[in-house]
């Protein structure tokens, strides 16, 4: 007998199963509403009275109608935050959605980080700016269902129709009789009632929102400012040991010899051993583990390691060699054709203005401020881990396979992450910690140094674009070609973050387009970096568009609006696709708010750029000055974004401000040098992150259209680089086609 | 060896004298608020006060801390009463990931003690050693101004 049938748990079958196991299951038991991956609803039976239950989720005290809400008899409302928090604000914003529909005051709510249980919570990955759009409706449904059950309980208690009742700030009211009951007083009764039919659960209208759209402070703020232990690195356990893990500076090297005996004699060192790994950079590469009694003992010992590496299979990658190759390749078309529409050759021939340009951007590092770490305890064939990961749900099967144990024996505790930016989507440090933990009695915290973190990143891949663009007499863009030179790890597909879709902007808006691609081999691991692909492609594309409007003598604002044309959804024409009307609106708003068109003194200029990514339409204007020594001052960046209704206004603004600073930081002075497979630099003394004294003022304006809400974590970043480069051109006539700016002679 | 942290004496034994104060605080004394970001005094996440002055604890050996008055983020508040900077940080919703903020607050607290009403330029200079990877600089600046104003208002009120 199957209790699971196409995603729905057969409740009758489950009851029969439980009874067959001599478990007493009360008919008054409350049902738990579960959400499975993909957004479907599953009912699982739980009983607080039974001795053996068929489902695995534990029963907390109070009324817990689903995995997102628990209301205690004293009225405390706990909302569970399902998505990892790495600074993007979802630990605050997603529970706000539940609280809004539940109709409680924010001051009544306590947030707890949810357990890692994808069966119950669905996707628990913080990436792709997916958390808001995918959880919006399920969380509203969860909050509203709980509210309806409380209303039904009050209706039963007072023997009135539910339609006569209202809710307000954690209370159910019967206006005509003046009676009121707090949610806490209704928990037992509510728990005994059947789950309402989901189609009967009414959601609020936007006009009824009391919480959503307000500026709400981050739920961990007080703990953060008082130095409470929240992050992965702060994990503390009785008997905890500390480890470092040292890999070959060129990825793929294996250990030949290590001075283990010498290291073992150093203060605090308990063990030194070699792990062979499994050859997968995203899991475990060969290296030397040191286990010690303190972090410093492990790190100090690491500095004394002498390792002989076999680099036969290791990376020999060279950025300079790639640059030389790309420049040669730029002279011809690419090996792969991504898109060919219309006739670019004749369109170029007939164009009034034609521009050719070669753009490049380097590899850059993620450098989250908390270096990678993971605490793990392997015991009796089971493992428990504490990690500041962005993808704990994906780690579960990976770790199970790596250790050869069932997933049910892997428990992951989500810690707060000191920055993610995409780096923490890859769980290599968790895999390393797991294998080290197998060799240690008791818990062990694997702590990467900053140098480890920068030398063993999954970098934002560099790339090259050989553009050709043609504009007609009216200044309209009529022909667009790009030979995109990128990298491949497997020889077939572009490396992570290094692919360019065939629909890449502005392909869908131009009649004659040719996009080709050549892939150079690369062993260095690359990975998603905030707004993958877009963070670099936007620099090239949106700057080159400005080269074309400039060649045509056309104001860039007019040029972009003309390019957008009639308001319409572009393919794939879903609610999350690019809409040229929404695009035009943010472009116009950014222009208006920045004073576009008003005169500026010599040496000062404005640059406008638009980019659509992660379902967010964003346009930005940078106002900069450049002096005779190429000293750059960014006076202001004006951001206009459309991500639908704003959930937490303070959080969304913070994300946009942070994106501008992140984008400026990356383009200004960041680059990773790769020579003979080795990475440089490996710390902040030579990898300059932007500091407070160069942070420009940022104004953020949202257009809160009626489209479904999407996230703010990534889409405000891509327009920053082209906006600033376009402004630099306006200010001093120099066209930046290669990043970082410091290489072009700019300084701040 | 005796260390004075946040007004209390702590006895630390068995540690190498060259151990950076950062790791003594975090591992030996269990004070996790002070963070590790780079280990070479470039990021400021490890900032504590040494006799009231801001120092990068990742680069301060244990011996240099002996007999000195050390203040960490855990000692910034006076019991339950938060420092005006901590209140301003909450009011302005400064943090994103939050990892750098203890160091930011310690540098800011030292600044306000020296310069109760700093200008933007004075803030930039005092805070330039504290990196924020998430880019909360604008809010940090606003919160420092707010805390300065709040302190001014309190001082005026009790004058």
- Assembly state of the chains shown: heterodimer
Q: Determine the strand fraction of chain B and express it as a percent band.
A: 5-15%
Helix % of chain A is 25-40%
Strand order of the largest sheet of chain A: 14-15-12-22-19-20-21
Low-confidence regions of chain A: 1-59
As laid out across the biggest beta sheet of chain B, the strand order is 2-1-5-3-4
Give the fraction of residues assigned to helices of chain B: 40-55%
Number of DSSP E strands of chain A: 31
Count of helices of chain A?
Answer: 18
**Mean pLDDT, all residues of chain A:** 92
Mean pLDDT of chain B: 96
Class by SSE composition of chain A: alpha+beta
Give the C-alpha Rg of chain A: 28 Å
What summary fits the major beta sheet of chain A? 7 strands, mixed
**Contiguous helical run count of chain B:** 6
Shape of chain A: globular
Broad shape of chain B: globular
Provide the gyration radius of chain B in Å: 16 Å
Largest interface: A-B, 64 and 61 residues
Number of strands of chain B: 5
Question: What does this molecule look like?
Answer:
The complex is a heterodimer of chains A (748) and B (159). Chain A is α+β, with helices and mostly antiparallel strands. Chain A contains 18 helices and 31 strands. Chain A has a seven-stranded mixed beta sheet with strand order 14-15-12-22-19-20-21, sandwiched between helices. Chain A has a five-stranded mixed beta sheet with strand order 17-25-24-23-18, sandwiched between helices. In chain A, strands 5-6-7-8 form a four-stranded mixed beta sheet. Chain A is globular. By secondary structure, chain B is of the alpha+beta class. Chain B contains six helices and five strands; from the N terminus they run ββαββαβαααα. In chain B, strands 2-1-5-3-4 form a five-stranded mixed beta sheet, covered by helices on one side. In chain B, β3 and β4 (53-56) form a beta hairpin. In chain B, α3 crosses α6. The radius of gyration of chain B is 16 Å and the shape is globular. The model of chain B has no long low-confidence stretch (mean pLDDT 96). Classes of the chains: A alpha+beta (748), B alpha+beta (159). The interface between A and B is large, with 64 and 61 residues.
